[in-house]
Amino acid sequence: ARTATVWKNLNPFWGEEYTLHLPMGFHNLSFYVLDEDTIGHDDAIGKISLSKDFISSHSRGIDSWINLSPVDPNEEVQGEISVELQVVEESHKRVLCCHVIEARDLAPRDTSGTSDPFARVLWNGQVLETAVSIKTRFPRWDELLEFVLEEGTAGETPLIVEVWDWDMVGKNDFLGRVEFSLDALQKAPVKGWYRLLPFTSTEGDAGGKLGALRLRVRLAEDRILPSRYYQPLIDLLVESVMCPSEEDVTPLALLEEVCSLESRQDVATKLVKIFLGQGLVLPFLDYVNLREVSRTTDPNTLFRSNSLASKSMEQFMKVVGMPYLHEVLKAIINRIFEEKKYVELDPCKIEPSRTRRISFKSSLSEAQIRESSLEVLTGYLGDIVESIVSSTEKCPPIMRVAFKQLHKRVDDHFPEAENQDAKYIAISGFLFLRFFAPAILTPKLFNLRDQHADTQTSRTLLLLAKAVQSIGNLGLQLGHGKEQWMEPLHPFILSSIGQVKEFLDWLINVDSSEKKPWTLFHPSATIKEGYLNKRKAEGLHLVSRFTFKKRYFWLSNESLSYSKSPEWQVRTSIPVQQICAVERVDENAFQQSHMMQITTRENGGQLSTMYIQCKNVNELNQWLSAIRKVMVSNDCLLPFCHPGAFRGSRWTCCLQTDRAVRGCSRTHSAVTLGDWSDPLDPDTEAQMVYRQLLLGRDKLRCSWKGSQGPSSPAPCNAASFCPMWDSNPQP
C-alpha cells in the first residue's frame, strides 16, 4: 500500500487508513518514508519495522509516535532458500554435506530489477561458494558443498548459509542468511525451504534524527470455523430484528452494551454485511434506528453520538453508496483541484500576497479578496447542491428505502409541530454530514482523488465542507458558532434549504412495499473500471513499449472485459471463473514498471497469460486486490506462477528453458486491500462479532442474568451460542 505524496513538507499529514488481508504466516510489517523525485529513484528517508509478535502483544493496537531507523541494505532482505543438509560417514571420516538447491523471491539489487545471486556456506572458519546465476531473483544452483568434520569438532559452531548479489565493480550486496545448529544436523538431516534473514541489527532507531512517524496499527487474527458453527449466532442476530423483545433484551441490544467504543465502527460494518448477506439489512437498520429514536427525548441530539445505530447507518452508506457518491461529486472535486483558486473568508488568514491568481494587477484589498472568495465559493456550492438535489434517481434504491424507514420512525416519535424538521434533519444528518461533507473535505480517503489536496485547495474544500454541513443542518446552527466570518455564505445556505427538503421528499418517495431480499451488488455490477495498457503473451520477442495498447477495462463479479474505449460497442470478455492467478510482473521482464499478469485456463484446459501495465503503484495494487477478491472462490487457482516472461527461449525470472515448467514463485491470492467493494464473507464477519461477545462475556452474562424475569424470553435462545465459550475459549 502506498500513501499519497505530500509535497514540500517536513511535517506531512496523511490520515490514510488501509486494511490489509494477509496470510497467517506473515512475519513483519514495514513502513518506509520516501522522498519522491520526479526524475530518478525516490530517496529513502527512514523505515519502521514491526514484527508480528510485537503487534500481537498490543491487544488494543499500537497508537504512538515511533522514531524512524536508517534503511540498512543488509536488513533489506526477502525470499527463501531451499537446502538439504546432513552429516554422513565416509571412509572413517564424517562429512557435512550441504546441497544448495535453489532460492526464490530474492531482493532485486541491480537497477534492472534483478540480482546476480550466489550462495556462500560458512562453517568453522571455512567458506565454500556456489556459481553465480546471472540476472535472476529465482536462481537454481543444485550444487553439493562438503566440509570434513574433524574429531572433537565443537557442535555449537553454527553452519551459516548466505546469499549474495555478485557485482563486477564494487562490493557484493547481501541478500540474506540462515543459520543451522550442527548438533541438530548430527541428530537428523534437514531439507526444505528456509526464510532468509538479515544480519543482526547493531543499531536501533536514529534517536529522532530522521524524524518520527505516527502509526495506528491493530492486528485482528482469527481462525475462521466452518459456517455451521456460526449459524446459531446468525440466527440470534436475525431473531433480534425479526422478533424484537418488548423489554429490549435482545442479542443485538446486549452486543451494543458490551461493545467498546473503539470497536463499534468495526462491529457496525460487520453487522451491516451480515444482514446484507441475509437479505435483511433494511429490517436491521430499522431495528437499530427505532431503538435509537425511542431512547431520544430531544430531537436536536438525535443520532449525534457514536451509537450502534449511527455507525451502522454511516457504514451502510459507504458499503452501498460509494458509486453514487462518485457520480455526484467526482466531476466537481476534480474541477476544484484543477482550478486551484485562492479563497479565504477568515480575516485572520487572508494573505494578500497569494492573490496574484485572482488579479495580475497590484495586490487586492482584504474586502476584494473576501468578495472574490465569496463568488468562487458560491459558484462551487451551487454546483454541489445542484448535483446532490438532482441525484434522486442515481441514489441506490436500498438507500432510499432505508431513509424512508428512518423518516417514518422520527416522524412518529416527534409529531409535534415544532419538531417538523426533525425527520428531515435525521436523513440529512447522515447524507450530508456523514457522507457528502467528509468526502468533500478529504477526497483522497473516499477514492475521489489519487493525491491529497495542497494547502490552498485544502482550505477551499474545508470551507465548502463547512457550508455543506450547515445546509445538512437546515441552517439551524447559523450565527451561533465562533466562525462569524462564514456569515457571507449564510444567504446562499438559507436559500438552499427549500431545495434540500424537496430533494429529501423525492428521495423517500420510493416503493418499499415489495417484500424482496435486498443484496449488496448485482453480479454484473461494475466493481472497478479504467484505462490500462494491455499486451498479449504472444510475440514477446518484441520488447518495444509500442506493443502495449491502451484499452478500457471493466471488472464485475462475473467477468473482466475490455475494449478500445468506454463507448466502443465491441468488448472482449473473460469469465471470472477462468482466472487462475493475478500477480505482479518483475520490471526486467519488459523494462516496464507497474505491471501485472492475469493467467486464465480456457475451456480446453490450456493456460493463457495477459500482461497489463498500470499508470502507478497505487493503481496496480487496487487492480490486483479487486481481481483477487472476485476470483477467491475459483477452483482453478494456481499455487505457483512465473513473475517474469518467457522471452528469448527462457523465462526471465528463473532462466528455465521449459515454457511449461512449474512457476518459480508462489502466488499471493490471500493478499488484498480491504475497501468498500469487498465481497461478503459471512463466516469472517460472524467471527468478528463473536470475538466481541467473547471479550465482553462476563458483562454479557451479568446483563442476561439481570434481565431474567417472568416475562423474559425463553433462556434457551440467549444461551444457544454459549457452548462455544467453553469449548473454544480462544478464537
From TrEMBL:
One of its GO terms (molecular function) is zinc ion binding. The keyword Nucleotide-binding does not apply. Residues 525-632 form the PH domain. Residues 1-66, 77-194 form the C2 domain. Keywords: GTPase activation, Metal-binding, Repeat, Zinc, Zinc-finger. Gene3D superfamilies: C2 domain (2.60.40.150), GTPase Activation - p120gap, domain 1 (1.10.506.10), Pleckstrin-homology domain (PH domain)/Phosphotyrosine-binding domain (PTB) (2.30.29.30). One of its GO terms (biological process) is intracellular signal transduction. It comes from the Eukaryota. Residues 263-473 form the Ras-GAP domain. PANTHER family: RAS GTPASE-ACTIVATING PROTEINS, RASGAP-ACTIVATING-LIKE PROTEIN 1. This is RAS protein activator like 1.
